[in-house]
Amino acid sequence: MPSLPARNLLFLNDPARRGHLINATRTHLPEADDQRRVSRLWI
Question: Taking CA atoms, which of 1, 2, 4, 38 is between 20 and 30 Å from 18?
């Protein structure tokens, strides 16, 4: 089975709206094919 391109995602707290997240993937991460799978939620 061929692998599909994968991209890491980064969501940060939105200081303007408490309890909301903003997608910071494009501005904070390089555009690359990353086949690793890691999930972590910091509370």
Answer: 38
